[in-house]
Amino acid sequence: MTLLKKEYNDVAYISGPLLFVNAASDLAYGAIVDIRDGNGRTRGGQVISVSTENAVIQVFEETRGLDLATASVSLVEDVARLGVSKEMIGRRFDGLGRPIDGLPQVVADKRLDINGQPMNPAAREKPEEFIQTGISTIDVNTSLIRGQKLPIFSGSGLPHNELAAQIARQAKVPGHEGDFAVVFAAMGLTQREVSFFTQEFERTGALARSVLFLNRADDPAVERLLTPRMALTTAEYLAFEHGYHVLVILTDLTNYCEALREIGGAREEIPGRRGFPGYMYTDLANLYERAGVVQGKPGSVTQIPILSMPDDDITHPIPDLTGYITEGQIVVDRGLNAKGIFPPINPLPSLSRLQGNGIGKGKTRADHKNVSDQLFAAYANGLDLRKLVAITGEDALTETDKLYLRFADDFETYFIGQGGQDRSIEESLTVAWGILSKLPQSQLTRLSRDSIDKFYGTKVDEMWRGNRI
């Protein structure tokens, strides 16, 4: 909706990306405005605060060179909106939803408020359908369920970008491949990362079912705050208007929160933990809670937010608050990465609180949960024995202890370290049984006798690390 434009000329002062305008109390919070300078240049902006004294506007571009005496502000839209269409699939956009793939602007079916509509809790359905990522550690040990929000906790220098691209390429809801889409939003990317994601999506053909929003590191911090909202608005439209099962991948939420802190500092807000604004929990919840399954709607929105923990500190405010809001976490491990294992996901600190809803008989396989528990227990035992060996040496171990020690090595090398291979849940469980079969049956206390009789002794040499022998 385009509104009758009214100009405001009393620009008081500029602080970083913020513009303070006097006598503009009739502007609405969230309204989109144009800022014109004396040279005729126009910048976009959004109203983020309104009082009887002034209105505060976030400028989408740099404020350098903006002359207070000649600057004017005019209203464009009542709230930030995005023009959405099914034709967005296969396209690339910047953080503000403008095409960057050389193709024309999308002809919008609707213009939607990027803040979304509150989802009635009574209308939410229980997430109960398994999403296959093709990554064994996730699918078997930390299963992703349709409608869930399951973050990935990574660290600086770890391959979370490569992991994000692999999930985007491989993810599917078994039986619903034709109506599955990926909305990928990246914030604060370097030029190298932009090139990586662009080439990876095009090379693998994943772009044909994806919508990309790419915000660069040299783009304004304000734009970084809008990028995930653009992506989620697109996802909600595809899911609830066209029946798609949409997987939303948001990376890197740390860059988003840093932009939130930068804007808060420019507004001279009282800082909270580590200088982040006190409302960061609410802001993140506004993003994460836009995942779910709605009664009467065939589609769904599932989220995988990715964040790099500063100093690998899981108690840092960003992962800490994210953990409160979301339903588990997938932890990328620096030790596994140092061994050359990819994807370096450590299943021990990882958790999916909704896993039990979407696995088992009639969904994945009857033995899925028990296999996951057995792998977890055996790997934890193997890691404890590694610490013991570092002190006493292997000579102090029993023969069973040595088998657990070998199990931990095989589990990391062959199960976690699958490389770029795309494994179905059946293949992942087959690899799991191949490794578990190297332990005595008496040690498989979390598996039923029927499962042991059926699967124990499985041979999967041809699947190791994706190499066919």
Structural class: alpha/beta
The proportion of strand residues reads 15-25%
CATH architecture of the largest domain: 3-Layer(aba) Sandwich
Mean pLDDT: 91
Portion of residues within helices: 25-40%
How would a textbook summarize the main sheet?
Answer: 10 strands, mixed
Unreliable spans? 465-469
Query: Roughly how many Å is the radius of gyration?
Result: 25 Å
Shape field: elongated
Keywords: ATP synthesis, Hydrogen ion transport, Ion transport, Transport
Domain ATP synthase A/B type C-terminal: 358-456
Domain ATPase F1/V1/A1 complex alpha/beta subunit nucleotide-binding: 134-352
Pfam families: ATP-synt_ab, ATP-synt_ab_N, ATP-synt_VA_C
Question: Can you tell me about this structure?
Answer:
The chain is an alpha/beta fold. It has helices spanning 136-141, 160-170, 191-204, 221-242, 253-266, 280-288, 317-325, 334-338, 355-358, 368-392, 399-416, 425-436, 449-455, and strands spanning 7-8, 11-15, 18-22, 32-36, 42-50, 54-59, 72-77, 81-84, 92-94, 110-113, 124-125, 130-131, 144-145, 152-155, 180-189, 210-216, 245-251, 292-294, 300-309, 328-332, 345-352. It folds into 3 domains: 7-77, Thrombin, subunit H, CATH 2.40.10; 81-356, Rossmann fold (3-Layer(aba) Sandwich); 367-467, Bovine Mitochondrial F1-ATPase, ATP Synthase Beta Chain, Chain D, domain3, CATH 1.10.1140. The protein has 13 helices and 21 strands. A hairpin with a 5-residue loop joins strand 4 and strand 5. Helix 4 (221-242) packs across helix 5 and helix 10 packs across helix 12 (425-436). It is elongated and about 85 Å long.
